[in-house]
Amino acid sequence: MNELLAHRQQQAQKALFEIHRVPLAHLPTPLEKMDRFGSLYGLSNLWIKRDDCTGLAMGGNKARKLEFLVADALDKKAEVLFTLGGVQSNHARMTAAAACRYGFDCHLWLLGDKPNGLPGNLLLDTMLGASVDFMPNMNDAELQKNIDDYLDSQRKQGKKPYYIPIGGGTGLGSMGYVAMIQELSQQLKEKNLEIKTIVTALGSGGTMAGLVLGCKLFMPQTRVLGISVSRTTGYFHNRILEVIREGEIVLGLDPIDYADDLFIYDQYVGECYGKPTPEGLEAINKLALSEGILIDPVYTGKAMAGLVDLAREGTIAADEPVLFIHTGGVPAIFAFEDLFHLK
Q1: Most CB atoms within 10 A, among 212, 258, 271, 274?
Q2: Which of 39, 89, 174, 290 is flagged as catalytic?
């Protein structure tokens, strides 16, 4: 290890220890080998990090980010957690649960049309007492203006809102996955295992930003592949670099170049965000039948389909130690029951 890396590691470890964080997730999450699923595609060293087991309101990756974001909201004496996401947003569901845990009100904007009934995550949002508004599709500038106007109106009413961007994708939120890499490195040490490649779903950019920053600090021989489920490679390249820089500031680190550390694939989105793909559904079914592990049609199904395709075309070698991050999202399955049929 060179002197610069050792210094950055020590600085980051000290900063992570000192950042205020509240307990929300059941940690460490399991690290499991998937021999039966891997054998279907000639992958002999395929592992899964079970962040669907974080526990908060049926689990998922957002619990790690919310540990830092909710702590910040408490420090700022906020009263309302305000966030937004898709109609089947896992982030919205878990933010509502975190609000219950720490005594906040919760206001959710769900981007899209109101469905019939309360499918999937919507039922859980309701059970968790969140106030939900469905917002029409709009461009980024229009959405940001509406957010600013809402926050201004809340403050004029004497309320103290705390805004969490989509997916908790901020430098502070990304600390959840910098810390996860520390956790993972210890698990790998105990198993005498070295992971060469990590694969994750890429929805807002915060998780991948934390993974890339964490690997650069604590697992520098490991690359992170992000499978987009929403936007283009160009968008995510710029967005992730922004969040990484925010994360460096949180950790007090001098900036370095991460452009060569970003591996982003946008060919697995399908028709659009939130619409399942045939390949994703195949990955869901095969993983369930081979390992008894459930993934969802919006995020992890598409990401697993991407992993399988990257293995077929040689980007991931057959014997390469590869880790899939299960970011959760299983409640969304219940909004797509028409895509799964009894035999």
Answers
A1: 212
A2: 89
Contact 12, 178 (CB under 8 A): yes
Q: In the prediction, which pLDDT does 5 show?
A: 87
For the stretch 215-258, pLDDT in tens is: 999 999 999 999 999 999 999 999 999 999 999 999 999 999 99
Q: Looking at this protein, which amino acid is placed at residue 144?
A: Q
Beta strands at 80-86 and 105-111: parallel, antiparallel or unpaired: parallel
Q: Which helix (H) or strand (E) segment is 305 a member of?
A: helix 300-312
* Alpha carbons 14 and 289: distance in angstroms, whole number: 43
Question: Which of 94, 134, 91 is CA-nearest to residue 112?
Answer: 134
First to last CA, the chain: 55
Q: Could you tell me which of 124, 99, 92 has the C-alpha nearest to residue 24?
A: 99
Distance, in Å, from the CA atom of 11 to the CA atom of 14, rounded to the nearest integer, reads: 5
Give percent of the chain with pLDDT exceeding 70. 99
Task: Tell me which residue has tokens 């917002």.
Answer: 135
Tens-place pLDDT, residues 69-120: 999 999 999 999 999 999 999 999 999 999 999 999 999 999 999 999 999 9
Q: Are 62 and 201 in contact (CB under 8 A)?
A: no
pLDDT of residue 1: 62
Bridge-based pairing state of the strands 31-33 and 46-50? antiparallel
What does pLDDT average to over the chain? 96
Summarize the chain as % helix, strand, coil (round to 5): 50, 15, 35
CA distances from 175 to 30, 39, 194, 208 (A): 19, 34, 22, 11
Say how far apart CA 1 and CA 143 lie, in whole Å. Answer: 45
Cα(165)–Cα(287) distance, integer angstroms = 31
Q: How far is Cα 219 from Cα 239, in angstroms, rounded to an integer?
A: 22
Mapping DSSP onto H, E and C, the string for 233-254 reads HHHHHHHHHHHHHHHHHHHCCC
Is residue 89 part of the annotated active site? The answer reads: yes
List, in sequence order, every residue forming a beta bridge with 194; answer none if it has no partner: none
Q: What is the DSSP letter of 169?
A: -
pTM as predicted: 0.96
Question: Does an H or E element contain 47, and which?
Answer: strand 46-50
